[in-house]
């Protein structure tokens, strides 16, 4: 929702050249939302869904921070300022989502590595002692 609001603000502002980033982020978030809602993550196990969500959060936070700085500092109209302020809020929201998704990603990767046969080690292989 925040990405859509930022998109609308950029359309109404002089900084309309920045409108593509919030639009793409909105569409990507919408796709991932419907993918999780329709349980596509359970049907397509080969795709790394937590990694895709993690990368979306990281790139969105970085891009929103950069374009918000540019919109607030370069343009003086109210819509650009509003888009910049909403962009800073979106940066904080995506940073929080980044932290939560990172924890899910670590759990997902640990679960995946414990299922694979080469991920399991015996205690003898794991110890570094030379007490033989």
From TrEMBL:
Keyword match Membrane: yes
Q: How does it sit in the membrane?
A: Multi-pass membrane protein
Q: Which gene encodes it?
A: Cmtm3
Please, which domain of life does this record's source organism belong to?
Eukaryota
* InterPro entries the UniProt entry points to: Marvel, MARVEL-CKLF_proteins
Keyword Membrane on entry: yes
Q: Where is this region: Disordered?
A: 111-132
Q: What is this protein called?
A: CKLF3 protein
Q: Where in the cell is it found?
A: Membrane
Q: Where is the MARVEL domain?
A: 1-106
Organism whose genome encodes this protein: Lanius ludovicianus (Loggerhead shrike)
Keywords per UniProt: Membrane, Transmembrane, Transmembrane helix
Gene Ontology CC, one term: membrane
- Report the Pfam families cross-referenced here: MARVEL
Membrane-spanning residues: 7-37, 49-71, 83-102
Principal cellular location given in the protein's record: membrane
